[in-house]
Amino acid sequence: MSYSPDNALIIQSDRTVLLDVHAPKAEAAQAAIAPFAELIKSPEHIHTYRLSPLSIWNARAAGMPVTDMVTALQDHAKYPMPESIAQEIETLGDRYGLTTLKPGSQDDSSSLSALVLQVEDKPLAELLQRHEQVGPLLGVSEASPQGNRLSPTTFAIDLGDRGLLKQALLAAGYPAEDLAGYLTGDELTLSLRSKTDAGEPFHLRPYQKTAAELFYQSGKAKGGSGVIVLPCGAGKTMVGMAAMSEIQQKTLILTSSLTSVRQWQRELLDKTTLKEEQLAEYSGQNKSTGPVTLATYQILTYRASQDDDFLHLGLFDQQAWGLIIYDEVHLLPAPVFRITAQLQACRRLGLTATLIREDGREGDVFTLIGPKRYDVPWRELEGQGFIAAADCTEIRVAQTAERQMEY
Q1: Rounded CA gap, 382 and 357, in Å?
Q2: d(CA 118, CA 128)
Q3: pLDDT in tens, 51-72
Q4: Could you tell me the pTM of the whole model?
Protein backbone atom coordinates (compact mmCIF):
# COMPACT_ATOMS: atom_id res chain seq x y z
CA MET A 1 0.00 0.00 0.00
CA SER A 2 1.26 3.48 -0.82
CA TYR A 3 -0.50 6.62 0.37
CA SER A 4 -0.17 9.53 -2.04
CA PRO A 5 -1.66 12.99 -2.65
CA ASP A 6 -2.52 11.72 -6.15
CA ASN A 7 -4.87 9.14 -4.65
CA ALA A 8 -8.55 10.04 -4.49
CA LEU A 9 -9.98 8.50 -1.32
CA ILE A 10 -10.29 9.78 2.21
CA ILE A 11 -11.55 6.92 4.39
CA GLN A 12 -13.23 7.93 7.64
CA SER A 13 -13.84 5.92 10.80
CA ASP A 14 -17.64 6.23 10.45
CA ARG A 15 -17.44 4.03 7.29
CA THR A 16 -17.92 6.95 4.91
CA VAL A 17 -15.49 7.33 2.02
CA LEU A 18 -14.86 10.69 0.34
CA LEU A 19 -13.72 10.67 -3.28
CA ASP A 20 -11.90 13.71 -4.68
CA VAL A 21 -13.11 13.81 -8.29
CA HIS A 22 -10.21 16.09 -9.31
CA ALA A 23 -7.50 13.70 -8.12
CA PRO A 24 -5.42 12.14 -10.92
CA LYS A 25 -6.49 8.62 -9.94
CA ALA A 26 -10.16 9.44 -9.27
CA GLU A 27 -11.64 7.26 -12.02
CA ALA A 28 -9.58 4.23 -11.01
CA ALA A 29 -10.60 4.69 -7.37
CA GLN A 30 -14.25 5.03 -8.32
CA ALA A 31 -14.15 1.80 -10.32
CA ALA A 32 -12.32 -0.02 -7.50
CA ILE A 33 -14.84 0.76 -4.73
CA ALA A 34 -18.06 0.70 -6.80
CA PRO A 35 -18.70 -3.05 -6.22
CA PHE A 36 -18.83 -2.74 -2.41
CA ALA A 37 -19.59 0.92 -1.55
CA GLU A 38 -22.87 2.85 -1.92
CA LEU A 39 -22.77 6.26 -3.58
CA ILE A 40 -24.65 8.62 -1.25
CA LYS A 41 -24.18 12.00 -2.92
CA SER A 42 -22.15 13.37 -5.81
CA PRO A 43 -21.86 17.17 -5.87
CA GLU A 44 -19.23 18.97 -7.95
CA HIS A 45 -15.97 18.22 -6.13
CA ILE A 46 -16.31 15.52 -3.48
CA HIS A 47 -18.42 12.37 -3.83
CA THR A 48 -19.52 10.56 -0.68
CA TYR A 49 -19.71 6.77 -0.46
CA ARG A 50 -20.83 4.59 2.43
CA LEU A 51 -19.60 1.14 3.44
CA SER A 52 -22.77 -0.53 4.70
CA PRO A 53 -23.37 -4.14 5.72
CA LEU A 54 -25.66 -4.54 2.70
CA SER A 55 -23.15 -3.12 0.21
CA ILE A 56 -20.48 -5.47 1.57
CA TRP A 57 -22.81 -8.49 1.51
CA ASN A 58 -23.87 -7.71 -2.05
CA ALA A 59 -20.21 -7.73 -3.07
CA ARG A 60 -19.63 -11.00 -1.23
CA ALA A 61 -22.65 -12.56 -2.94
CA ALA A 62 -21.16 -11.53 -6.28
CA GLY A 63 -17.98 -13.39 -5.35
CA MET A 64 -15.72 -10.52 -4.24
CA PRO A 65 -13.28 -11.56 -1.49
CA VAL A 66 -13.04 -9.42 1.63
CA THR A 67 -9.30 -8.97 1.07
CA ASP A 68 -10.00 -7.35 -2.32
CA MET A 69 -12.24 -4.75 -0.67
CA VAL A 70 -9.63 -3.83 1.92
CA THR A 71 -6.88 -3.71 -0.72
CA ALA A 72 -8.95 -1.45 -3.00
CA LEU A 73 -9.37 1.08 -0.19
CA GLN A 74 -5.74 0.96 0.87
CA ASP A 75 -4.42 1.29 -2.70
CA HIS A 76 -6.44 4.46 -3.39
CA ALA A 77 -6.25 6.20 0.00
CA LYS A 78 -4.67 9.64 0.39
CA TYR A 79 -4.06 8.98 4.09
CA PRO A 80 -3.78 5.82 6.20
CA MET A 81 -7.07 3.99 6.53
CA PRO A 82 -8.41 3.67 10.10
CA GLU A 83 -7.60 0.18 11.33
CA SER A 84 -11.18 -0.25 12.55
CA ILE A 85 -12.48 -0.02 8.96
CA ALA A 86 -10.50 -3.05 7.79
CA GLN A 87 -11.67 -4.97 10.87
CA GLU A 88 -15.33 -4.06 10.29
CA ILE A 89 -15.19 -5.01 6.60
CA GLU A 90 -13.62 -8.36 7.49
CA THR A 91 -16.16 -9.02 10.25
CA LEU A 92 -19.16 -8.12 8.10
CA GLY A 93 -17.85 -9.78 4.94
CA ASP A 94 -17.04 -13.03 6.71
CA ARG A 95 -20.61 -13.24 8.02
CA TYR A 96 -22.02 -13.80 4.54
CA GLY A 97 -22.46 -17.53 3.99
CA LEU A 98 -22.30 -18.53 7.67
CA THR A 99 -25.99 -19.45 7.31
CA THR A 100 -27.19 -21.43 4.30
CA LEU A 101 -30.66 -22.56 3.22
CA LYS A 102 -30.62 -25.95 1.52
CA PRO A 103 -33.30 -28.36 0.26
CA GLY A 104 -34.42 -31.02 2.67
CA SER A 105 -36.13 -34.22 1.63
CA GLN A 106 -38.00 -34.31 -1.67
CA ASP A 107 -41.19 -36.32 -2.01
CA ASP A 108 -41.12 -35.99 -5.79
CA SER A 109 -39.43 -34.02 -8.56
CA SER A 110 -42.05 -31.26 -8.64
CA SER A 111 -42.15 -29.94 -5.09
CA LEU A 112 -39.70 -29.24 -2.32
CA SER A 113 -41.08 -30.86 0.82
CA ALA A 114 -38.77 -29.30 3.41
CA LEU A 115 -35.93 -26.87 3.91
CA VAL A 116 -32.87 -27.02 6.13
CA LEU A 117 -30.93 -24.12 7.61
CA GLN A 118 -27.25 -24.99 7.88
CA VAL A 119 -25.31 -22.87 10.40
CA GLU A 120 -21.51 -22.59 10.42
CA ASP A 121 -20.96 -23.63 14.05
CA LYS A 122 -22.70 -24.41 17.32
CA PRO A 123 -22.16 -21.00 18.99
CA LEU A 124 -23.87 -19.26 16.06
CA ALA A 125 -26.70 -21.81 16.17
CA GLU A 126 -27.22 -21.00 19.86
CA LEU A 127 -27.16 -17.27 19.16
CA LEU A 128 -29.76 -17.55 16.39
CA GLN A 129 -31.98 -19.79 18.51
CA ARG A 130 -32.17 -17.01 21.08
CA HIS A 131 -32.70 -14.20 18.58
CA GLU A 132 -36.10 -12.56 18.94
CA GLN A 133 -36.96 -12.72 15.22
CA VAL A 134 -35.04 -15.81 14.12
CA GLY A 135 -35.84 -18.13 17.03
CA PRO A 136 -39.60 -18.55 16.37
CA LEU A 137 -38.88 -19.42 12.73
CA LEU A 138 -36.59 -22.19 13.98
CA GLY A 139 -39.50 -23.56 16.01
CA VAL A 140 -38.20 -22.23 19.32
CA SER A 141 -40.82 -21.70 22.03
CA GLU A 142 -41.20 -22.12 25.79
CA ALA A 143 -42.52 -25.62 25.21
CA SER A 144 -39.74 -26.43 22.71
CA PRO A 145 -36.52 -24.58 23.61
CA GLN A 146 -34.51 -26.57 21.03
CA GLY A 147 -37.04 -25.90 18.27
CA ASN A 148 -36.74 -27.82 15.01
CA ARG A 149 -33.09 -28.68 15.60
CA LEU A 150 -31.91 -31.64 13.55
CA SER A 151 -28.28 -31.52 14.69
CA PRO A 152 -26.04 -29.07 16.57
CA THR A 153 -25.82 -26.89 13.42
CA THR A 154 -28.95 -27.66 11.36
CA PHE A 155 -32.64 -26.77 11.68
CA ALA A 156 -35.72 -27.90 9.79
CA ILE A 157 -37.55 -24.93 8.24
CA ASP A 158 -41.16 -24.69 7.07
CA LEU A 159 -41.44 -24.02 3.33
CA GLY A 160 -43.65 -21.00 3.89
CA ASP A 161 -41.05 -19.37 6.16
CA ARG A 162 -38.27 -19.26 3.56
CA GLY A 163 -38.63 -15.54 2.84
CA LEU A 164 -39.41 -14.56 6.44
CA LEU A 165 -36.38 -16.43 7.72
CA LYS A 166 -34.08 -14.69 5.24
CA GLN A 167 -35.45 -11.32 6.37
CA ALA A 168 -34.94 -12.26 10.03
CA LEU A 169 -31.39 -13.52 9.44
CA LEU A 170 -30.51 -10.27 7.66
CA ALA A 171 -31.88 -8.30 10.63
CA ALA A 172 -29.74 -10.47 12.93
CA GLY A 173 -26.67 -9.63 10.85
CA TYR A 174 -26.13 -13.11 9.36
CA PRO A 175 -27.57 -13.05 5.81
CA ALA A 176 -28.38 -16.49 4.44
CA GLU A 177 -27.11 -17.84 1.17
CA ASP A 178 -30.18 -19.42 -0.41
CA LEU A 179 -29.31 -22.72 -2.14
CA ALA A 180 -32.73 -24.30 -1.65
CA GLY A 181 -33.61 -24.44 -5.35
CA TYR A 182 -36.83 -23.65 -7.20
CA LEU A 183 -40.05 -25.23 -8.35
CA THR A 184 -40.38 -25.95 -12.06
CA GLY A 185 -42.91 -23.69 -13.77
CA ASP A 186 -44.96 -24.53 -16.84
CA GLU A 187 -42.89 -24.88 -20.00
CA LEU A 188 -42.40 -21.91 -22.33
CA THR A 189 -40.35 -22.45 -25.47
CA LEU A 190 -38.60 -19.36 -26.82
CA SER A 191 -35.25 -18.26 -28.18
CA LEU A 192 -33.58 -15.00 -29.08
CA ARG A 193 -33.71 -14.10 -32.76
CA SER A 194 -30.65 -13.27 -34.84
CA LYS A 195 -32.54 -10.61 -36.79
CA THR A 196 -35.28 -8.14 -35.86
CA ASP A 197 -38.54 -7.70 -37.80
CA ALA A 198 -36.82 -4.94 -39.75
CA GLY A 199 -34.12 -7.38 -40.83
CA GLU A 200 -31.41 -5.80 -38.69
CA PRO A 201 -28.90 -8.13 -36.98
CA PHE A 202 -29.55 -8.66 -33.29
CA HIS A 203 -27.22 -10.06 -30.66
CA LEU A 204 -26.70 -9.45 -26.97
CA ARG A 205 -23.99 -7.01 -26.01
CA PRO A 206 -21.16 -8.63 -24.03
CA TYR A 207 -22.23 -7.11 -20.70
CA GLN A 208 -25.87 -8.14 -21.26
CA LYS A 209 -24.79 -11.72 -21.91
CA THR A 210 -22.56 -11.68 -18.84
CA ALA A 211 -25.38 -10.29 -16.67
CA ALA A 212 -27.79 -13.04 -17.80
CA GLU A 213 -25.17 -15.73 -17.24
CA LEU A 214 -24.36 -14.49 -13.73
CA PHE A 215 -28.06 -14.48 -12.90
CA TYR A 216 -28.81 -17.96 -14.25
CA GLN A 217 -25.43 -19.61 -13.47
CA SER A 218 -26.21 -22.58 -15.71
CA GLY A 219 -29.16 -23.56 -13.55
CA LYS A 220 -27.00 -24.18 -10.47
CA ALA A 221 -28.39 -23.66 -6.97
CA LYS A 222 -26.56 -20.34 -6.58
CA GLY A 223 -28.30 -18.90 -9.64
CA GLY A 224 -31.91 -18.07 -10.40
CA SER A 225 -32.44 -15.12 -8.08
CA GLY A 226 -30.84 -11.72 -7.85
CA VAL A 227 -30.62 -8.16 -9.12
CA ILE A 228 -28.89 -6.82 -12.23
CA VAL A 229 -27.83 -3.15 -11.98
CA LEU A 230 -27.31 -1.38 -15.31
CA PRO A 231 -27.47 2.33 -16.20
CA CYS A 232 -30.46 3.80 -18.00
CA GLY A 233 -30.33 3.02 -21.71
CA ALA A 234 -28.07 -0.02 -21.26
CA GLY A 235 -30.76 -2.52 -22.31
CA LYS A 236 -31.97 -4.15 -19.10
CA THR A 237 -34.92 -5.55 -21.07
CA MET A 238 -32.47 -7.59 -23.16
CA VAL A 239 -31.05 -9.14 -19.99
CA GLY A 240 -34.58 -10.14 -18.96
CA MET A 241 -35.24 -11.73 -22.35
CA ALA A 242 -31.92 -13.59 -22.18
CA ALA A 243 -32.89 -14.97 -18.75
CA MET A 244 -36.25 -16.08 -20.16
CA SER A 245 -34.55 -17.92 -23.01
CA GLU A 246 -32.30 -19.73 -20.53
CA ILE A 247 -35.08 -20.76 -18.13
CA GLN A 248 -37.77 -21.63 -20.73
CA GLN A 249 -40.69 -21.39 -18.28
CA LYS A 250 -43.82 -19.26 -17.91
CA THR A 251 -42.87 -15.73 -16.95
CA LEU A 252 -44.54 -12.88 -15.08
CA ILE A 253 -43.06 -9.45 -15.85
CA LEU A 254 -43.88 -6.60 -13.46
CA THR A 255 -43.16 -3.05 -14.58
CA SER A 256 -43.52 0.48 -13.28
CA SER A 257 -45.97 1.77 -15.92
CA LEU A 258 -48.17 0.90 -18.87
CA THR A 259 -45.57 2.53 -21.11
CA SER A 260 -43.03 -0.03 -19.89
CA VAL A 261 -45.52 -2.84 -20.52
CA ARG A 262 -45.82 -1.72 -24.14
CA GLN A 263 -42.03 -1.48 -24.47
CA TRP A 264 -41.58 -5.03 -23.18
CA GLN A 265 -44.26 -6.27 -25.60
CA ARG A 266 -42.52 -4.63 -28.57
CA GLU A 267 -39.10 -5.95 -27.63
CA LEU A 268 -40.32 -9.48 -26.97
CA LEU A 269 -42.06 -9.68 -30.35
CA ASP A 270 -39.16 -8.03 -32.17
CA LYS A 271 -36.27 -9.98 -30.65
CA THR A 272 -37.62 -13.37 -29.51
CA THR A 273 -39.58 -16.16 -31.18
CA LEU A 274 -42.64 -15.47 -29.02
CA LYS A 275 -45.92 -14.84 -30.84
CA GLU A 276 -48.39 -12.08 -30.02
CA GLU A 277 -50.95 -14.58 -28.71
CA GLN A 278 -48.42 -15.78 -26.12
CA LEU A 279 -48.24 -12.33 -24.50
CA ALA A 280 -50.95 -11.26 -22.09
CA GLU A 281 -51.52 -7.92 -20.41
CA TYR A 282 -52.85 -7.58 -16.88
CA SER A 283 -53.68 -3.92 -16.44
CA GLY A 284 -56.55 -1.55 -15.75
CA GLN A 285 -57.70 -2.08 -19.33
CA ASN A 286 -57.10 -5.84 -19.71
CA LYS A 287 -57.06 -8.59 -17.11
CA SER A 288 -55.73 -11.62 -18.96
CA THR A 289 -52.88 -14.05 -18.25
CA GLY A 290 -50.82 -16.21 -20.55
CA PRO A 291 -47.43 -17.86 -21.06
CA VAL A 292 -45.88 -14.40 -20.63
CA THR A 293 -47.94 -11.97 -18.58
CA LEU A 294 -47.06 -8.29 -18.21
CA ALA A 295 -48.50 -6.25 -15.36
CA THR A 296 -47.86 -2.96 -13.57
CA TYR A 297 -47.10 -2.43 -9.91
CA GLN A 298 -50.01 0.00 -9.83
CA ILE A 299 -52.62 -2.61 -10.74
CA LEU A 300 -51.20 -5.06 -8.20
CA THR A 301 -51.50 -2.55 -5.38
CA TYR A 302 -54.91 -1.18 -6.36
CA ARG A 303 -57.65 -1.21 -3.73
CA ALA A 304 -60.88 0.75 -3.55
CA SER A 305 -60.07 2.23 -0.15
CA GLN A 306 -57.36 2.17 2.49
CA ASP A 307 -59.22 -0.48 4.46
CA ASP A 308 -59.97 -2.82 1.54
CA ASP A 309 -57.90 -5.79 0.40
CA PHE A 310 -55.58 -5.61 -2.59
CA LEU A 311 -57.77 -7.06 -5.34
CA HIS A 312 -55.11 -8.23 -7.77
CA LEU A 313 -52.32 -9.77 -5.71
CA GLY A 314 -53.86 -13.13 -6.59
CA LEU A 315 -52.18 -12.76 -9.99
CA PHE A 316 -49.13 -14.42 -8.45
CA ASP A 317 -51.12 -17.64 -7.94
CA GLN A 318 -52.92 -17.75 -11.30
CA GLN A 319 -50.15 -19.54 -13.20
CA ALA A 320 -47.25 -21.89 -12.47
CA TRP A 321 -44.64 -19.18 -12.94
CA GLY A 322 -41.08 -20.33 -13.48
CA LEU A 323 -39.67 -16.78 -13.49
CA ILE A 324 -40.83 -13.43 -12.15
CA ILE A 325 -39.08 -10.33 -13.48
CA TYR A 326 -39.27 -7.18 -11.37
CA ASP A 327 -38.45 -4.29 -13.71
CA GLU A 328 -37.25 -1.10 -11.97
CA VAL A 329 -37.08 -3.09 -8.75
CA HIS A 330 -36.17 0.05 -6.75
CA LEU A 331 -39.80 1.14 -7.33
CA LEU A 332 -41.33 -2.13 -6.11
CA PRO A 333 -44.22 -1.12 -3.79
CA ALA A 334 -44.06 -2.24 -0.18
CA PRO A 335 -47.26 -4.41 -0.33
CA VAL A 336 -45.69 -6.55 -3.07
CA PHE A 337 -42.85 -7.52 -0.71
CA ARG A 338 -45.41 -9.37 1.38
CA ILE A 339 -46.35 -11.54 -1.58
CA THR A 340 -42.74 -11.81 -2.74
CA ALA A 341 -41.89 -13.41 0.60
CA GLN A 342 -44.25 -16.25 -0.34
CA LEU A 343 -42.71 -16.70 -3.80
CA GLN A 344 -39.26 -17.88 -2.79
CA ALA A 345 -39.66 -21.13 -4.76
CA CYS A 346 -39.91 -19.07 -8.00
CA ARG A 347 -36.88 -17.74 -9.83
CA ARG A 348 -36.74 -13.96 -9.37
CA LEU A 349 -34.89 -11.37 -11.45
CA GLY A 350 -34.71 -7.72 -10.43
CA LEU A 351 -33.66 -5.09 -12.96
CA THR A 352 -32.70 -1.56 -11.94
CA ALA A 353 -30.34 1.35 -12.46
CA THR A 354 -29.94 1.83 -8.69
CA LEU A 355 -30.24 -0.25 -5.54
CA ILE A 356 -31.14 2.82 -3.46
CA ARG A 357 -34.81 3.00 -2.44
CA GLU A 358 -36.60 6.04 -1.04
CA ASP A 359 -38.26 3.88 1.64
CA GLY A 360 -34.97 2.32 2.76
CA ARG A 361 -36.09 -1.25 2.01
CA GLU A 362 -32.91 -2.29 0.21
CA GLY A 363 -32.65 -5.17 2.68
CA ASP A 364 -35.96 -6.60 1.47
CA VAL A 365 -34.73 -6.47 -2.13
CA PHE A 366 -31.57 -8.31 -1.05
CA THR A 367 -33.43 -11.06 0.81
CA LEU A 368 -36.65 -11.46 -1.20
CA ILE A 369 -35.53 -10.76 -4.77
CA GLY A 370 -31.89 -11.69 -4.32
CA PRO A 371 -28.41 -10.19 -3.98
CA LYS A 372 -26.77 -8.07 -6.64
CA ARG A 373 -25.43 -10.40 -9.33
CA TYR A 374 -23.96 -7.87 -11.75
CA ASP A 375 -23.24 -4.16 -11.84
CA VAL A 376 -21.43 -2.11 -14.46
CA PRO A 377 -20.65 1.61 -14.08
CA TRP A 378 -22.17 3.96 -16.65
CA ARG A 379 -18.73 5.48 -17.28
CA GLU A 380 -17.51 2.11 -18.55
CA LEU A 381 -20.43 1.68 -20.96
CA GLU A 382 -20.10 5.31 -22.05
CA GLY A 383 -16.43 4.75 -22.84
CA GLN A 384 -17.28 1.68 -24.92
CA GLY A 385 -19.91 3.60 -26.87
CA PHE A 386 -22.88 1.54 -25.63
CA ILE A 387 -24.70 4.50 -24.07
CA ALA A 388 -24.71 8.17 -24.97
CA ALA A 389 -22.07 10.38 -23.41
CA ALA A 390 -23.37 12.52 -20.58
CA ASP A 391 -23.03 16.28 -21.04
CA CYS A 392 -24.06 18.02 -17.82
CA THR A 393 -24.65 21.74 -17.72
CA GLU A 394 -25.81 23.72 -14.70
CA ILE A 395 -28.13 26.63 -15.48
CA ARG A 396 -28.99 28.97 -12.61
CA VAL A 397 -32.28 30.82 -12.90
CA ALA A 398 -33.04 33.89 -10.81
CA GLN A 399 -36.12 33.74 -8.61
CA THR A 400 -38.76 36.44 -8.32
CA ALA A 401 -39.28 38.00 -4.91
CA GLU A 402 -42.52 36.01 -4.48
CA ARG A 403 -40.87 32.69 -5.38
CA GLN A 404 -37.96 33.48 -3.09
CA MET A 405 -40.32 33.97 -0.15
CA GLU A 406 -42.14 30.73 -1.02
CA TYR A 407 -38.80 28.92 -1.20
Answers
A1: 25
A2: 12
A3: 999 999 999 998 899 999 999 9
A4: 0.87
